[in-house]
Amino acid sequence: MNPVLETAERNEPFGNLEPEAIDKTWRDERGLKGWLSVTTHQAIGKRYIVTAFMFLLLGGLEALLMRLQLSSPENTFLGPGRYNQLFTVHGTTMMFLFAVPVMEGMGVYFVPLMLGTRNVAFPRLNAFGYWMYLAGGLLFYGAALTNTAPDAGWFAYPPLSGPQYSPGKGVDVWAQMITFTEISALCVAVELIATILRMRAPGMSLNRMPLFCWGMLVQSFMVLFAMPAVMVASTVMLLNDRTIGTHFVNPAEGGDPLLYQHIFWFFGHPEVYIIFIPALGMVSAIMEGSTRRGVFGYPAVVLSLVANAFVAFGLWVHHMFATGLPQIGEAYFTAASMMIAITSGVIIFCWIATLWTGRIHLTAALHFVFGFIVIFVLGGMTGVMLASVPLNLQAHDSYFVVGHFHYVLIGGALFPLFGAFHYWFPKFTGRMIDERLGKIAFWILFFGFNLTFFPMHIVGLNGMTRRIYTYPEIVGWQNMNLLATAGAFTILLGGIVFIANVLTSRKSGAPAGNDPWEAGTLEWATSSPPANYNFVHLPFINSRYPLWAGKADRGFVTGMRSDRREVLVTSVLDAEPHHRYVLPGSTIWPFVTAAGLSVGLVGSIFAFSGYFVASALGMIGVIGWFWPREPLEMKP
Amino acid sequence: MVLAARTPGDEAVTTPRVLDVSGLPAYDISSRSPLWLGQLLMCLIEGSLFLILIAMYFYLRLSVDVWPPPGVQLPNLILPTLALIPLIASCAGSYLASEAAKMNDRRGMLVGMALNLVLAIVFLVLRTVEWYGLNFTWKADVHGSIVWSILFLHTYDVVADLIMTTVLVVLVASGRYGEKQRLGVHVDSVLWYFLVAIWLPLYAVVYWGSHVVGAPQ
Ligand code: HEM
Ligand SMILES: [Cu+2]
Fold first, then answer.
1. Which of A323, A505, A594, B78 is deepest in the core (most CB within 10 A)?
2. Could you tell me if residue B21 is inside a domain?
3. What does pTM read for this prediction?
4. Residue A575 — φ and ψ, nearest 5°?
5. Domain CATH number, residue B132
6. Residue A3 pLDDT > 70
């Protein structure tokens, strides 16, 4: 080893030895083709996040339109048909095009950094997943703009969504958009599990893995088991009934609309946890960075995450209490639904202990975490209420439920996400985000959020049902609705402050350095923003928070080749080095494959033969993707 | 640890520990490869898809009195059962190819994959013949819908895997392969074992289902 550089190494624990060579190996091509060929996880992760935020804006815009319509009784701003489209497109956008993809994007960006490796295990699959997601979003909004928006609600229950009551192509577009986004989620799940189980830094045994990575691991397994269900519901059952004449939801021929509900919610309930569990990981990361201590009760938190995932697959029927299932079944699902409060409670108490015993640094990110805890606990309490069948039957399909699920979705996912965005902003951009503006945005959002959604509980208990486009004056709901509308515009204001903060801090924020929060996990061990290869020397660790360990405990890996995209494969449990593994280079084929598949899948909305087009084009793409490139043999 | 951490003696405290991995193999064709794990996860995804379809079959069965619906002939059991023989035997071809891939034995890979392909095609031919014996389509009623969905999806996966195997045969035969492609041959066998294994419960449901849990018309 070069003695000069060895000294440099001592100051910078995982420092710089041969940046030029490795930089050349990992560089992306320039130009449009280069842009379409990118396979580095940071670029793909950022694309996911930016695209998802665009969809958040669109979904928010739709919400504002709905709130405007409901602000006064007998309003004629929107007609019933348009309103139906708006809540369907809003709900679908938020769930499928925003919440899940944004969590996947954060995982794609941070998991390899936190694990101390160079990229995800399957970089091309990662690129492909993103393109599928984008195509699905474009299809959905393309259809909406040409007036073929679906209008049967975000879960498209038959018989309303069936061929008889929803003519036109709206529901077909909805069903196929699900296929696109689920393919994308499955790609991310597969590659993250493989990365987490096989590519952790040497020494990072599973019990030293950052909690965010645990969250992504658990979430990815949930995706594997849940997403196939929604594809069965939306494509095999609903779309095929509509296009090729199967009878899954047609009672006249032995089909059963309730079966659709079962299959949909077998996915739909875990879906909430697919959004929420990564958020728990984010909160843990923010806590650690803002209290300068590890999360209290790490094993308890991990076990609770895993337990949540298991229990989440046994809860789906609580969405169907009003369908008149056997009582014994309802009792079971009530008990199981309440059980989730125990595991979530364990996590919350561990966080409280962390805050209690840490040195709190009251950052903007931590504000969002506090906001999350308050809102989520409230949403959790209405959740426990709704899990009891008698109350559920009263509140079913009322605004009480709308209030409840926005408390858990926005409180449980959006606030942690915004916190994480403030916390990791320096890593994304190399600059600090303005703390003061961040806190202002937080208070506006927190206030606006409660102003919007708290009144919904009350107006719901007063009898206002969800999905109605207007109401008569005598029922006396106008004040609560006006408050909610005012709240929605307050949220808009908070959003504008947040966006302004992001845009200005990106340009003129204070330079951040590698580790502005003095946090302990590996994403902070490299430059901000990280180079395409993340670390010049892969870290080699022997504690849970390697950056807090003494210098003598830090280590790095040598002997990796820099002239090809090499990563280190380690064992599943203890992360002992096993072999070196060469990742494939950047290529345009994932884009081509996704494009071909998309053309066919869009065609399948019109004729079943579209699937054969999709398969043929997809197969051509995959062959190009896997076609051997020189050099064929890898000499050690 | 495979490799002990090396700490240069004289400045043990301040120098970072170094882990030299240059001695580790530069590739690995085994179940330790990330690609193998990725393939296994793909199988899990398809497995949950098929398990959901099986659950649907029984749910739909339980919600009617007459199963299969009037007019549907009980499926013939001989042909689909015979077809299991080439299908299960084809795993031997996959196994040969995947072991040969580990040892970089080109002939072994070609023989194995060819055996796999030929037996799988025999299976597909028998399956197609069998399909002509079914006197209902997916449009007939919900029994037809679920049975044909299972048959179609499984056949689709089988055909897709056979095309990929064919591509691998072409690559290996033309000599245009290295470790990555050998690893491809190895993990391709994982998918094939899965498609064969999952067919057994699917076969039981599709062909025995209406015999065993059916009710007289
Ligand atoms: C930004 C502030 C938001 C506002 C003001 C808002 C407002 C609304 C309104 C007014 C409805 C229609 C209620 C009805 O007529 O039944 C609705 C439905 C819904 N929202 Fe939001 N929402 C917001 C954010 C979100 C987010 C972030 C998510 C998910 C992550 C979400 C998920 C949903 C879902 C799933 C529905 C149900 C759609 C349906 O009934 O099919 N919303 N929201
Ligand atoms: Cu639920």
1. A594
2. no
3. 0.94
4. 55, 45
5. 1.20.120.80
6. no
